[in-house]
Protein: Enoyl-[acyl-carrier-protein] reductase [NADH]
Amino acid sequence: MAYNLLKGKKGLVFGALNEQSIAWKVAQRAVEEGAEIVLTNTPVSIRMGTIDELAKACNAPVIAADATSVKDLENLIDQTMEHFGGKFDFILHSIGMSPNVRKGRTYDDLDYDYLAKTLDISAISFHKVIQVARKKDAINDWGSIVALTYIAAQRTLYGYNDMADAKALLESIARSFGYIYGREKCVRINTVSQSPTPTTAGKGVLGMEDLLDYAERVSPLGNASADDCAGYVLTLFSDLTRKVTMQNLFHDGGFSSMGMSRKAMTTYGKGLEVEYEDIRLKK
Ligand SMILES: NC(=O)c1ccc[n+]([C@@H]2O[C@H](COP(=O)([O-])OP(=O)(O)OC[C@H]3O[C@@H](n4cnc5c(N)ncnc54)[C@H](O)[C@@H]3O)[C@@H](O)[C@H]2O)c1
Structure:
């Protein structure tokens, strides 16, 4: 059901690779809510993924840009403004990648060139996007910028590796730039901390299936899907949240406030029984 929440608004969406992508759902829902959008991704993701289908459905142009390249971002913002005939209202940063995770390097054996790439792609690109947009005065007053993050920024989760450090930096950038852009132009900047979600990036996380199951059992409302996430992000692009800025907002079915749940305890207990049985048989 649509509410016309974004009627008359214009926005730029990074990170739609395929229909599992969180950015894909945000793009679809934003258009349903009355927004006009521009889509962007890296040239290789545009080639390998299915963004053209989304572009057709959303009547949106696709402009290639590597979010780590300031030159690409300058061209992207110029072209986006040209397309819209002026400033626009919102940006979604939905970008994450760790070469260390991809190459199976564990946190106690990081390759530092890869770490630099992880931080550049997954966090510093957020700074670059905002800095370029601000220098070009691309965002309307009371605009909204959102990036997606994960609770591994605050708590250690097995297997999340150097992406945890990238997310901590990403959330800090939202606060630091949120102050500057807020006081000047009332542009708000927030991060949304999403449940584990079965997307291409998500599936790269070590033990993702178990993590999804664990989070589902621990969260009183269950895991938030990519579509749920899109709904929440749209409220942050809308005028209903004009005074929300510099926040890390958990969108995780309650996971972040839980310690142990009955469902998880039951499963853990069953695991212990198996473990005790193994020990007894070995004696
Ligand atoms: N899937 C999860 O479990 C989960 C949970 C919390 C937060 N997130 C975050 O959500 C965001 C979106 O990820 P997703 O789960 O939809 O996966 P996804 O794989 O669909 O999206 C990741 C996107 O990042 C893009 N990207 C990578 N390098 C880039 C670069 N240099 N420049 C521009 N774009 C680049 C990819 O092309 C891809 O479109 C990421 O920030 C991710 O960390 C995901």
